[in-house]
Structure formats: structure tokens, C-alpha cells
Amino acid sequence: MISVAVLGASGRMGATTVHAVDSADDLTLVAALDAGDEVAMAARAGAQVVVDFTVPSATEANVHAAIEAGLHAVVGTTGWTADALGRVDEHLKERPELGVLIAPNFALGAVLAMKLSAAAAPYFESVEIVELHHPDKVDAPSGTARHTAAGIAAARAAAGVASSPDATSQDPDGARGAVLDGVHVHAVRLRGLVAHEEILMGNPGEQFTIRTDSFDRVSFMPGVLLGIRKVAAHPGLTVGLDGYMTL
Ligand SMILES: NC(=O)C1=CN([C@@H]2O[C@H](COP(=O)(O)OP(=O)(O)OC[C@H]3O[C@@H](n4cnc5c(N)ncnc54)[C@H](OP(=O)(O)O)[C@@H]3O)[C@@H](O)[C@H]2O)C=CC1
Ligand SMILES: O=C(O)C1=N[C@H](C(=O)O)C[C@H](O)C1
Description:
The model has no long low-confidence stretch (mean pLDDT 97). Helix 3 packs parallel to helix 4 and helix 5 (108-120) packs parallel to helix 6. The protein contains 7 helices and 11 strands. It folds into 2 domains: 2-102 and 218-244, NAD(P)-binding Rossmann-like Domain (Rossmann fold, 3-Layer(aba) Sandwich); 108-215, 2-Layer Sandwich (Dihydrodipicolinate Reductase, domain 2), CATH 3.30.360. Strands 2-1-3-4-5-11 form a 6-stranded parallel sheet, with helices on both faces. A 5-stranded mixed sheet has the order 7-8-6-9-10. It is an alpha/beta fold and 247 residues long. The protein has helices at 12-23, 40-44, 56-68, 82-92, 108-120, 143-158, 221-230; strands at residues 2-7, 27-33, 49-52, 72-75, 99-102, 126-133, 178-180, 183-189, 195-203, 206-214, 236-239. Residues 78, 104-105, 133, 137, 142-144, 195 line the site of the ligand O=C(O)C1=N[C@H](C(=O)O)C[C@H](O)C1.
């Protein structure tokens, strides 16, 4: 039995995670914590793993507090920078037995979309990303889009592929979107949506589109549970659920 504490337990993802952990025979929920609660309360409740679905401004401090408390951490909250990941990596050297998984998206379709887009991107002249989410989301572009763009950029750089062609010379209103690692990313916020991403790739005469849709937050739960079950077996920092999967 793995003892689990959920941070951000009253939020959209936290509440879904509490239900999923409660429903799993091999997991037991020992703490459901929210803003104002100390992460150390999870350790005092007997947790082995904390799951963080909070807010970008709180998640890094929560992970450092989890490491201090001797807890493994499974993190879905977005907003992680390379510097913040580096600080966690450094902190984990003091506790080499602990695992921290930071995954921008736990939906299996999204994990596959990120892998497939990195594999395909060197073979196309043009690549752009459209991410589409519910309007209550606080960050844009999504963590998934950032991770997707980084994977695509790394794959194209390794293959020596040039930037996507773009004749735009006048864009006073930013209609071409954000540019992340050289990849244009467009963010849509629309009532009725949950979490969606489209990766568009083009060559002369053809288009290749990878699309992933989460219509319900239950779509993230198989990945979250996989992370909880495997985090102790993966000491150190892992970024992306694909690090726990054979793909
Ligand atoms: N990796 C993945 O697969 C997914 C990641 N996400 C990400 O997860 C995060 C949460 O999303 P979502 O559930 O929709 O957001 P919500 O706003 O619904 O939930 C966030 C919760 O965290 C609480 N909170 C804020 N600060 C703290 C803190 N310091 N400690 C503990 N709890 C805190 C909030 O409480 P209060 O309201 O009182 O401030 C709220 O209950 C976002 O970054 C989102 O992008 C979302 C879906 C999937
Ligand atoms: O806020 C959300 O809802 C989501 N956040 C994550 C992100 O920013 O990529 C994962 C998923 O897209 C849902």
C-alpha cells in the first residue's frame, strides 16, 4: 500500500486525484491539503508520496518542502522554468533516495503526442502548435505546449533542420502567437473546452496533424496513478511521464 497526500486537493485536478487515489486498491489517501496547509503535514500524516496540483507560484516551494520532509513527489502543476528544475535537481542530491516526477501532462494521448511530434518534426518544413483550454486556466501558453515546443526544437536542431519559413514582416498585434524555442504557439481559451493540443506540420503539398483531446479530467488519472506507483523506483528528477514508460 502506498500512502498519498494531495496538495491543491480542493482544486479541479486535486479533487479528481483525491477520488482516483481513494478508488485505487493499492493506494491510501492520508492527507488532502490546500493553500495555507504546510507540506510537512503530509509527512506527519504518514504520506510516502505527495501529488501537487496547485498553482505555478506555489509548486516549486512545495517540491522543496516535500524533499525536506523526505517525501517522493508527483507534480502536475505547470510553470516550471529550467532554473527551477535545476534547483530541484540540486536539492535532490541531498536526498538521493527520493524521486520527483514533474509531468506537464499526464494524459496518455498527450504524452504520445509530445513523443510523436518530436519524432516527426525534423521531416517537415513548417511546425506550429495550437493549444486550446478552458478559460479558468491561469497560464498561457500551456505547460504541455512549452514541453512540446522544446521537444520539437531539440529534434529539429539535432537533425540540422532550418526554422519554419515565415514571410510575416508586419504583426503589430501579435497575431502570429508566442515563439517558444523557435516554434510558434497559439493559445485559445474557450468555455466548454478542457485541455486540447494540435501540432501542425507542413511540407509542400501535404499536412500532418497530431491532435490530443482531454474531454474530462479523468483522462489524466491513469498517468497520475502510474506516477504515484513508480516514483519511488525512479530516484532523482524525471521531467515528463514518458520517462516512466517504454515508448
Ligand atoms: N500535468 C497535468 O496533466 C495537468 C496539469 N494541470 C495543471 O495543474 C495545476 C492545477 O490546475 P487546476 O486543478 O485546474 O487548478 P485549480 O485552480 O482548480 O486548483 C489549484 C488548487 O491549488 C490550491 N492552492 C493554491 N496554492 C496552494 C498551495 N500553496 N498549497 C496547496 N494548495 C494550493 C488552490 O486553492 P485556492 O483556490 O484556495 O487558492 C486550488 O484549490 C495547473 O498548473 C494546471 O496547468 C492541470 C491539468 C492536467
Ligand atoms: O490547466 C489545465 O487545465 C491543464 N494544464 C496543463 C498544461 O498547462 O499543459 C495540462 C493540461 O493541458 C491541462
